[in-house]
Input
Amino acid sequence: MKVIVLGSGAMGCLFGAAFHRAGAEVTLVDVNADHVDAINADGLKVDLRSGEETLPIRAALPADVSEAADLVMVFTKTFHTAAALEGISAAIGDDTHLLSLQNGLGNDRRLADFVAEERVMVGASMLPSDLVGHGHIRSHGEGYSKLYPAFGDDTAMATRVADLLTQGGLETVLDAKIHEGIWSKAIFNATMNPLCALTRRTPGFLGANPQSRATIRAAVAEGIAAAHANGVMLDGQPIYDLTEVSMTDHADHEPSMLQDIHAGRRTEVDAINGAIVTAAKEAGVEAPVLETLWNLMKLEEAKLA
Ligand SMILES: NC(=O)C1=CN([C@@H]2O[C@H](COP(=O)(O)OP(=O)(O)OC[C@H]3O[C@@H](n4cnc5c(N)ncnc54)[C@H](OP(=O)(O)O)[C@@H]3O)[C@@H](O)[C@H]2O)C=CC1
Ligand SMILES: CC(C)(CO)C(=O)C(=O)O
Output
């Protein structure tokens, strides 16, 4: 399978490496020329709990992509998705499928602007990953990923993709209730990511303090109510469980929002907290804790500007 990973930062490189191990023909596409050059010159360095490896994967700038791919896996930040797909229009042919495991709500519609709905797949990943330097990522945490067609039930391509990722070392399952899974992950991120970004601390710190634990419970409860009000009848308990896993197994991982603040970059809070709070209000429900976390993160972004 010809795979393009579009946005080859922390997560894109992790998933690109799995496709490569499974024998797919992978191109890591990114706008960061130094990162692309480092991968082409020295290989992609992947630091896992099980050890470090260097993989000879091809990397390219968007302008150098000239052939259609079977799969484009989008791993830019959500606010870069549209520009990134426009930048590789040569890669999107009549049979190309698009996949997003990006955080937040609304990734299905963002991809459906570029291909027919039946070729859009979405999902979520609980794996952590950090960009250590040019051509070098680290992922020290367990977790699995789930995906499914966003708008239908033809699972042929989704099955091939999940099998390749699992074969390449990243356990991936199909989940017919993928929209519940995406909402659950978004509620988790809307709670944990801003709290870590605002305190400049990792999940282990949140676990050790009663104030953060109380805020986590309140924020998750609001997210569950927002989902239910929108007809997404997810089970809330697994989200509380995920926060516990995060505070223990991912105790030292910087959530992507904290990584962004440390790097002086815009965060994805609009697609995460903003999308949940907006959906809640549209359904007649308030989500004051999630909204306050959203507002505080917008102030952090304003400080960066
Ligand atoms: N990191 C994590 O642990 C997890 C992240 N996620 C989600 O995965 C997604 C990716 O996150 P993450 O890997 O951390 O992000 P990164 O910032 O590490 O990687 C995104 C990459 O996309 C590049 N990019 C930006 N614009 C374009 C473009 N037009 N064309 C090609 N590449 C582009 C960025 O370059 P530049 O930096 O120069 O803008 C960057 O290298 C997000 O939605 C995040 O929420 C989900 C689970 C875990
Ligand atoms: C790694 C994980 C699952 C939790 O921090 C994440 O989604 C993020 O960092 O944004």
Observations:
- The chain has a mean pLDDT of 97.
- DSSP finds twelve helices and twelve strands in the chain.
